[in-house]
Design goal:
The complex is a heterodimer of chains A (311) and B (77). Chain A is of the alpha+beta class. Helices cover 34% and strands 25% of the residues of chain A. In chain A, a hairpin with a 3-residue loop joins strand 12 (291-297) and strand 13. Chain B has helices at 2-15, 35-49, 66-76. By secondary structure, chain B is an all-alpha fold. Classes of the chains: A alpha+beta (311), B mainly alpha (77).
């Protein structure tokens, strides 16, 4: 058994509204809002690193739990925008959060990384006790903030989220999950060395529009549930229209899909945990369960997790 | 040609427009399709032509014009 025990997040203080971003990329602020549904996003300060954001989110999560850093048995960190090839940010985040001598694993998967991290944590928790999952991204440094990078630059923001998965207890049990990968489309969304983020947006949207509802449907089918039985949907905040499309495809009430992309943009793998932390800190209490978490991203990797209120 | 007429009907229905594109006209460049409408178009094509379009074929290039959609459907029948 494994449970979601606490959530936390960190958003850099610098707010970048459409009025500031639009001239950089040669766009009109009104068009930018219409095209993305994003009103503002956060940009990390020059001295901030992926690890620094992750440490802040990890500390926020631990502060929201009754668990101390010394009790953590494992750390799993997702980031697609880390500054160096190796080591990834996991070891630095673990050290910065005061977690010494415990395994810290990197998942350089980008958008679906935090979902995969939660699923792995659910499997690892019975052995390691408390597993801290962190996702941290500085996307503003991997896009071109000029007219040549307009189509990607307008989508992304920076931030970090964290979730404590425990074997003992928590507010929701991780009941089941489905994960999937399709490497045939690996080229469509990638971050090469010394090059900005490459995204074939049309292919990504087309693939995500089919794969996300399908994987959620598969998860629900094998748990003998229908989409209307789910109290809350927490999705990777990739695109406002995509979330709406997933709701329509599932035939689930749109209001059950949590959204905060308008304020933070797409923070890649961090978005799922930032959304979950915001939801848990406000509208998530009392828990409207069952809860489905789902994400799709580079790889292609995608999946869904089913959580039920802990009894 | 009958199939191309049917394809244009479906494109108009899912796009909510009334257009009569040339067979080789890019439906993206002319603003008829966007990423999300394309997803709806693929689902509508599956229903109308009773074909299953696998994820491996889900690339915008295959559905960029009436001619390309026609060729793709011919390859599936």
């Amino acid at each position: 058994m494994a449970y979601l025990r606490a959530l936390g997040c960190y958003l850099p203080s610098r707010v970048v509204g459409n009025a500031e971003l639009a001239p950089m990329v040669g766009a009109d602020p009104a068009w930018l809002l219409q095209a993305t549904g994003i009103e503002e996003r956060r940009f990390a300060a020059p001295q901030e690193t992926v690890a620094a954001l992750g440490i802040a989110a990890a500390k926020d999560c631990l502060a929201a739990s009754s668990i101390s850093a010394s009790e953590i048995g494992m750390v799993i960190v997702s980031s697609g925008s880390a500054e160096q090839r190796f080591p990834g940010p996991a070891s630095v985040i673990a050290a910065g959060a005061g977690i010494a001598g415990k395994p810290a694993i990197d998942l350089p998967m980008a958008s679906a990384g935090s979902l995969f991290g939660l699923a792995l944590a659910a499997q690892m928790a019975p052995r390691y006790g408390h597993v801290l999952v962190v996702a941290s991204e500085i996307m503003s440094r991997v896009v071109r903030l000029d007219p040549t990078g307009r189509d990607t630059a307008i989508l992304f923001g920076d931030g970090a989220g964290a979730c404590l998965v425990s074997a003992e207890t928590g507010f929701a049990e991780i009941a089941d999950f489905v994960l999937a990968t399709d490497g045939d489309f690996a080229e469509t969304l990638r971050l090469d060395f010394d090059a900005p983020l490459h995204m074939d947006g049309r292919t990504i949207i087309l693939q995500a529009s089919r794969k996300l509802p399908r994987v959620i449907g598969e998860l629900l089918d094998r748990n003998q549930m229908n989409a209307d039985a789910i109290g809350t949907y927490l999705l990777h905040q990739a695109n406002l229209n995509l979330i709406t499309r997933v709701a329509q495809a599932l035939g689930a009430p749109d209001a059950r899909f949590f959204r905060n992309i308008a304020r933070f943009g797409n923070t890649s793998s961090a978005s799922l945990l930032i959304a979950a932390a915001e939801w848990w800190g406000s509208s998530g209490k009392p828990l409207r369960d069952p809860v489905v978490l789902a994400a799709f991203g580079a790889g292609l990797n995608w999946g869904a997790i089913l959580c039920r209120a802990a009894s | 040609m009958e199939r191309q007429k049917k394809i244009i009907e479906i494109v108009n229905r899912v796009a909510g427009k009334q257009v009569d594109p040339a067979p080789d006209e890019s439906l993206f460049e002319s603003g008829v399709l966007d990423s999300f409408i394309l997803a709806d178009l693929v689902s509508a094509l599956e229903q109308e032509f009773a074909v299953k379009i696998p994820d491996s074929d889900l690339t915008p290039r295959k559905f960029d014009s009436v001619e390309r959609i026609d060729s793709y459907l011919a390859s599936r029948s």
